[in-house]
Inverse folding.
C-alpha cells in the first residue's frame, strides 16, 4: 500500500524529504506558507497547500489525522514547530517526525507529542568530523545513543580476504549488514565472500566497539 505522507515546511530539509519520498513512490502532500515554494514542489506532490503550519481548520479539512506520517520540517521557527506538533497530536495524527534546532528544542517536541525528532545539523556535523578524522570512513549514522551504522572503504587488510576470516563479529561484536560493490548492494553478504578493492563495508554495532574496530583495523588519516 502506498504511504501517504505530509511534509510541512519546504526549506532545504523539507524539500529534500519531498523529493526523496517522491522517488520512493509515496503520496506526498506539501504544506508551506510560501506560495512560490509550494508551486516549486507541485511536480513532486499529489496535493499542494499554501497555508500556515498552525492553521488547525486547514489541517482538519485535509484530514491530516489519516496520514501515515507527518513531517514537520520547520525547525528554524521553534514556537511554530512546537505548536504545530501539539495541534497534530490533538487531531490524532498517528506518527509525527519533527526537525529540531537543538537538544532543548528536541525535548520540547517530544513532550508535546513528536514520535521522532531529527537533528540534521548536528548529525551532519558528526558525519563531517568523523570523515575528516578518518579517510576510510564513507558515512556515519547514529541510530541510538550507543549504536551506529557506518560505511568503510575496504583497506589492504581486508582485500582478498573472506569476510568470515576478518573476524569483525568475533573480535569486535559488530555485524557487516551489506557490502557495496560498484553499483550493487549485497544484502546480506555471504561470510565466505572475498572482499575486493573498492568495496564498501556497511557495519552496525555499539559505538564503543566501532571505535575499537577503527583503532585496530582502519588506517588513520595521515
Amino acid at each position: 500500500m502506498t504511504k501517504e505522507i505530509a511534509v510541512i515546511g519546504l526549506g532545504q530539509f523539507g524539500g529534500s524529504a519531498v523529493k526523496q519520498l517522491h522517488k520512493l513512490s509515496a503520496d506526498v502532500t506539501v504544506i508551506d506558507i510560501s506560495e512560490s515554494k509550494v508551486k516549486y514542489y507541485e511536480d513532486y506532490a499529489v496535493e499542494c497547500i499554501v497555508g500556515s503550519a498552525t492553521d488547525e481548520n486547514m489541517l482538519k479539512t485535509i484530514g491530516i489525522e489519516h496520514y501515515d506520517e507527518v513531517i514537520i520540517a520547520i525547525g528554524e521557527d521553534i514556537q511554530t514547530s512546537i505548536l504545530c506538533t501539539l495541534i497534530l497530536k490533538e487531531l490524532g495524527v498517528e506518527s509525527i517526525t519533527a526537525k529540531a534546532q537543538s537538544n532543548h528544542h528536541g525535548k520540547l517536541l517530544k513532550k508535546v507529542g513528536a514520535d521522532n525528532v531529527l537533528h540534521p545539523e548536528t548529525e551532519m556535523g558528526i558525519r563531517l568530523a568523523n570523515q575528516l578524522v578518518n579517510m576510510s570512513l564513507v558515512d556515519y549514522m547514529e541510530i541510538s545513543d550507543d549504536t551506529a551504522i557506518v560505511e568503510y572503504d575496504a583497506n589492504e587488510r581486508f582485500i582478498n580476504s573472506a569476510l568470515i576470516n576478518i573476524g569483525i563479529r568475533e573480535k569486535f561484536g559488530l555485524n557487516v549488514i551489506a557490502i557495496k560493490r560498484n553499483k550493487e548492494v549485497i544484502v546480506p553478504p555471504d561470510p565466505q565472500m572475498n572482499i575486493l578493492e573498492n568495496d564498501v563495508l556497511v557495519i552496525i554495532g555499539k559505538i564503543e566497539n566501532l571505535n575499537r574496530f577503527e583503532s585496530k583495523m582502519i588506517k588513520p588519516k595521515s
Remarks:
- Confidence is low (pLDDT under 50) at residues 131-137.
